[in-house]
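Q: Here's a chain of 413 amino acids. Please give me its 3D structure as C-alpha cells.
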Amino acid sequence: MTFSSILRRSGVILFTCVAILTSAASCSLPFGSTTTAKTLGILKFDTTVNTEKFARANAVTGLNGETDQQGLTSISVQKLIPAGNNNLYAISSQRGIFFSENGGQTWQRRYVFPLTSTATDQKQKDQDINTALDKNNAFTVVDIAKDANDDKKIYAAGTYNGVPKIYQSINSGETFKEVYSEVGSFNEINQIIINPQRSLEIYALLGKSDIIRSTDGGQTWGKLAVVEQNPVYIGITPDKNQLYVIRKNGVPLISPNRDKNFQELRFTKKVDATVKTGYFNSSSTTFNSYQWAIAVPGSNDEGWVVVADSQIWYRTAAAEQFSQMVLPVQGDKYNILDVELHPEKKLDKIYIAVDNSLFVTENRGESWDIDDRIRVSTEIGYINDIIIDPKNPNITYLTLTDSKFISYRGVTF
C-alpha cells in the first residue's frame, strides 16, 4: 500500500526449488534460500510464551515433511491474516501463499496449482511435480482476503504469466479454483477485499482506475466504477457498511450503498505553523496527497485515521478537522508502512511502522514510545504489516520485507 519513491511495483524474483535441479523427492522445502543478511519473514509476540520480546515465526515444513526453522527468515512477507483457532494465512510476492494451523510455529506453502502426477515412473513423476512447481512459481500473489464468516474460504489475487487473476479456496488453501481472469493483461489487480457484513460481496482494485465487484462470492464479476486521480486503496467502513476509495491525487470518495454512486469525503486538517507536515509545509487545510485511511470502529463512521501528506492524522467526529500525530522521527527520508489500531482501545493505543522501527502511542500522538520488544540477533527488514489478533490482543505479528517488496495493506505500487 505507496508512500515514497521506494513504494513501487517491482519485478518479482521467481525462485527454483532444489527439486528442479535434482528431484522433487529430495526437496525438503518449497523454495531455496536467498543471501540477505537481514531478518525477514514473520515475528510474533505472545504474552503467554514470552513477555519481553518478539520471536521469529519462520519455520517451514517442506514437501518431504522436513522442517527448516529459518524457512521464512530470508523471505519477504507482505501480509498476514489471522483465521481463528491459531490458523494463519500469509503471502509473499516472492514465494506465494502460506498457511499455519499452530499460530505460526510452522508454515506450509499452499499451491494454487496442485502438485500431482499420474505417472508410475519415479523420474516422470518428479518431472511432473517440477512442472507443477514452475506453474505455481509463475503466479505472483499480490493480495489475499478471507471470508469473515468462513475462515477456510480465501481469495488470492495476483498475476499468472502476465495475466491478472483471482483464485478461490474453500478449504484453507488445500485446493484453488480460478474465479476471475482479466482480459487486459495491462490492468493489474492491486487489492482485493470482502465485505465483512456481506461475504458474497467482493471488490478488487485494478490498475490505476477500475473497481470490479462480485455479488455472488466470486462466480461472476462486473465493473463497478472507473475512478480517476489514482485510487490507491479501497475499504468498507465498519459501522455503516459503506464502500470508500482513497485516491492519491484526489479527495477520498464514499458510496453509501456500495454502488457506482460516490460522494466526496471532504477531509480538512488543522493547520499549526509550528508543526512540520512531512514533505508538505503548506498552510492550507486541504490535504495534498493521500495514501490510506480507515474509519474508526464504533464511531458511526465519523472517526477516521488518515495517512496523508507523509503524516498521520485523526478525527473523532464529522464536524472536526483532522489533528496531526507528530511522528517520532527526524528528517524527511522515512516511510510510514503501516498503522494499526488496538482492537479494544482504538485511538487510545496506536502502533505505527516507520521503516524497520515500531512505535506506539497511548495519547493520540502527543508522545511516542519505541517498541523495544524487537530483539533479534540481526538487523530486521522493513516492517510491512502490523497485526494484532482481533480475538486475542495479547498476540501481535509483524511481517518483514526487503525494500524491493514493500506493500501497504496488500496494495503494492
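Q: Can you summarize the key feature?
A: Residues 122-137 form the longest helix (16 residues).
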